[in-house]
Amino acid sequence: MSSPPSSLWGSSPGDGRSDGRHSQFTYRHLSQMASYNTSCPLRVVAHIDLDCFYAQAEMVRLGVPEDQPLAVQQWQGLIAVNYPARAYGIGRHCNVTEAKKLCPQLIHQHVATWREGDDKWAYRPDAADHVATDKVSLDPYRLESRRILAVIKEHLPHDLQKVEKAGIDEVFLDLSAHAHAVLLERFPELTSPPPDDDPSALLPMPPLSALEWQADALVDLDDEHTEFDDPDWDDVALLIASEIVRNIRAAIREKLKYTCSAGVARNKLLSKLGSGHNKPNQQTVIRNRAVRHFLSGFKFTKFRNLGGKLGEQLRQAFNTDSVQDLLAVSVEQLKSKFGDDTGVWIYDTLRGIDTSEVNSRTQIKSMLSAKSFRPSINTVEQARKWLQIFAADIFSRLVEEGVLENKRRPKTITLHHRHYAQTRSRQSPIHQGRLLDEETLLSLAKSLLDQIVAEGHVWPCTNLSLSVGGFDQGISRNMGIDGFLLKGEEAQVVKLGSKMLMKEEDAQETQPAEKRRRIDSSGIRQFLTKKEQTPCTGSDGAVMGNNGGETLGSLGSEVSPGAAGNPNGLTAPDEASFSQANHRQTSTTVHLCPRCDSRLESSEALQNHQDWHFAKDLQEQERVTSTFVSQPSTAGNGRPAPAPVKRPGRPKKKERGQSKLNFG
Ligand code: CTP
Ligand code: CA
Ligand code: CA
To answer: According to the UniProt entry, which residue ranges have a biased composition of type Low complexity (predicted)?
Structure first.
C-alpha cells in the first residue's frame, strides 16, 4: 500500500500538479480505486440525501402539486417542511398555528398513528387530539426509504456496489470501484501495464482539457488553481462519479417522484457537507483542488463530531470557531491539548481528510417501539394494551423486512419500564424453534411485564419500550470515527449503561465481553459519551434532551404537547419506533449526543441524530449566509451567487472553463 497523499489539500501524491505530460497519480493509485482503498487519492464517495423527506413522502402519497406548501404534523408540531412552505419562513421550529398564520394555504398532514386497541397504523384525521392514545408510526416513510434504496442499488452494478444507509433518508456510496471500471472502459490506455511494470510510475495525463459538469454545482477552486488548468484523473473520477449520481437521482425522480440532493467528493466528510450545500434537488461536486476553499468558509462546529463537547473544547482552546483560523495550529499543538489520536483526527478533519469506510450494513439488527406517557399509566391492563401496539408495530416491520422468510429473526426481546427516575428492564430469549408471530412477541412481552410488576412499586409508569435484537452478531470493521467505543472507556460506558438501563441483578450478558467490545480506533469517542445529563436548547430553541433515563430514538421521536420547554413537539425522544443496523443486543451502552445530551441506543441512532443536528445547522447556515459554493460563475476568487434550483429537464448551462468531455 502506498502512503497517503502528501498534499494537505488536494489529492496530490506528489509536489503539486503534473509536469504536463504525466499525471500526478500512479498506476498503484489507479488500482487502489478498484479495491476501495480509503487512502486512495482517486477515491470517489457520494452522499445522497432526500429533500424534506417526510414532506415529500406525503406529497407523493397524496398527489399534491410540487409547488403546494406542505408540512408534516406530529401532534401540534411540525417534523418536516417542504421547500415551498420554507419559502414562507415555516420551519420545524413552528407549530401548526404559527405555520398557518405564515401560510394559510399550508397543508399540514399528520403522521400516521397506531391507536390503542387497533392493530394497524393508519392516517387518522383526529390524530392530533389523541396524543394519549396514539403512537406515531413512521412505517410509511420506512417503506419509501426502502424503495428508494432499492432504486439506488438497481442503478449500480451488482458486483461493484458499496452502499451505506446512513439514516432514513440518506446513503453514502463509495463509487471508487465503479468509477474505476468506467475509467478503464473509456480510457483503454489505462489498461496497459505500467512502464517497467513499476506500479509507482506516473499515469499519462487524461486526454482532455476540460470537463462537462452539466448541472452540478461546482465548488470554486482553491486560490492556486484555475479552471484553465488541465484536469487530472481525480477530476475525471469525480466527473464519472457525478454522472453516476446524476443518473441515480434521475431514476429516483422518475420512478418514485422524489427529489434529492447529493455531494460528490473524495470522502464521507466532504460528500456529506456537499449534499447539504445546495438543497433542494442539486448535486455539489467538491474537487480535490477545491477542498480548502470549500472548508474555509465553515465553522468547524458544523462538522460531524465537532458540533458538541469536543468542538466546544476546541473553540475554547483557540478562542475561535473558524476552520480558517485553526489551520495555523500545528498538529503538535493539537496533540498536546487533545491527545495524539484526537489531535491528529482534528488536524485531518480541518483539512477535509477522512479515511472512514463506507459500510454496506443495511441489514436491520434491532427494532424498538416505545412510548412515553403523559399522563402516566397506572394499571397492568393499560400497559398490556401498549404492549399489543408495540408487538404489532415490531411484527409488521419484521414481516416487511422479510426476516420471517429468510430466517433472520431476532433472538432476544427486551422490555424497559420507567417509574419516576427508576428504569427497570427484563430481557428474554426468543425461542428459535417455532414460528415467530405477533402473538408470541406479545406473550413474551407480557411475561416480561409481569416480572417487572411483581417487584412492586411500578406505578405510575411514564415510559415503556419494547425492543427485539440479536439478528446478526457481525460487527463491521471500519465504521468511521464515530462508530467506535474506546476500549479503556468501555467498562465505564457499560457501567453507565447498566446503571441507567438495568438493575444490576437484571443485566443479562448475552455475548462474551470480547464480542461486545468494539475496535479501539481513536480517542475521539470519549467526546461522544457523557456522564451528566442536562437538557439543552437546540438551534431552533427546542429542548433536545431526553427525559432522564430513556434510550429512545432520534429520527421519528416525538413529544407530547405541553412538554416543558418544548411547545413545538419537535424532538424530545419521548416516543420512538425505529430499527437499527448494528444495534447491540443488550442495552449495555449508552450513546450520548455531545450537542444536546440526548441518549441514544446505538451508534447508528446517534449517527442519525447527529446527522439531523448537522443538516439543521447546514440549513441554518444556508439561510443566514450567502453560500460560497456554486458554479464557477464569478471570476478569480470572487464568491459566486448560490446556484439556482435545478429542475429535471432544465436546459444545461455551460460553465466557464468547462466544455464537452469527449470520451474516446
Ligand atoms: N426527522 C425527524 N426527527 C428529527 C430529525 C429528522 O422526524 N429529529 C425526520 C424529518 O421529518 C425528515 C427526515 O427525518 O423528513 C430526514 O431528516 P433531514 O434529512 O434532517 O431533513 P429533511 O426534512 O429531509 O430536510 P432536508 O431537505 O433539509 O434534508
Ligand atoms: Ca433530508
Ligand atoms: Ca438526512
So the answer is: 1-15
Residue showing cell 429468510: 406
- Structural domains of the chain sorted by starting position, each given as residue range(s) with its CATH number in brackets: 6-44+175-286 (3.30.70.270), 53-132 (3.40.1170.60), 296-354 (1.10.150.20), 366-580 (3.30.1490.100)
The 10 Å Cβ neighbour count of residue 647 is 13
Q: Is the CB of 596 under 6 A from ligand 1?
A: no
CA dist., res. 480 & res. 462, Å (int): 36
The answer to whether 658 and 210 are in contact (CB under 8 A) is: yes
- The whole-chain average pLDDT of the chain stands at 75
The pTM of this model reads 0.70
* Pocket probe mutation, ligand 1, options 48, 555, 566, max atoms within 8 Å of Cβ: 555
- What confidence tens digit (pLDDT) does each residue in 208-243 have? 888 988 878 889 898 889 888 889 999 999 999 999
Ligand 3 mean position, distance from CA 168 (Å): 7
Report the first-to-last Cα separation within the chain, whole angstroms: 31
Mean pLDDT, residues 335-358 taken together: 95
Q: How far apart are CA 372 and CA 127, in angstroms?
A: 16
54: CA distance to ligand 1 center in Å?
Answer: 7
The CA-atom distances, in angstroms, between 326 and each of 197, 299, 348 are 43, 10, 11
CA separation for the pair 487, 583 (Å, rounded): 18
Q: Is 279 in the pocket of ligand 1 (CB under 6 A)?
A: yes
Dump pLDDT digits (tens) for 283-300.
999 999 999 999 998 999
Per-residue model confidence as pLDDT tens digits over 391-401: 999 998 888 77
Nearest-atom number in ligand 1 for the CA of 614 is 20
Is 621 near ligand 1, meaning CB less than 6 Å away? no
Asked if residue 233 lies in contact with residue 206, where contact means CB atoms within 8 angstroms, the answer is: yes
The closest ligand to the CA of 616 turns out to be 1
Q: When comparing pLDDT for 66 and 650, which is higher?
A: 66
Report which ligand 1 atom has the smallest distance to the Cα of 280: 27
**C-alpha to C-alpha distance for 484 and 477, rounded to whole angstroms:** 10
The percentage of residues in the chain with a pLDDT greater than 90, rounded to a whole number, is 56
Q: Helical H runs in 200-357?
A: 233-256, 268-275, 291-296, 309-318, 323-326, 331-338, 340-350
Identity at 488, one-letter amino acid code: G
**Residue 270, ligand 1, Cβ within 6 A:** no
Nearest of 242, 482, 209 to residue 342 by alpha carbon? 482
Residue nearest to atom 18 of ligand 1 (CA): 612
Separation of CA 251 and ligand 3 centre (Å): 19
Ligand 1 neighbourhood includes 168 CB (under 6 angstroms): yes
d(C-alpha 78, C-alpha 53), whole Å:
13
Q: Which residues contact 185 (CB under 8 A, 6 or more apart)?
A: none
Residue 46, ligand 1, Cβ within 6 A: no
Closest by CA position to 171, among listed 293, 38, 49: 49
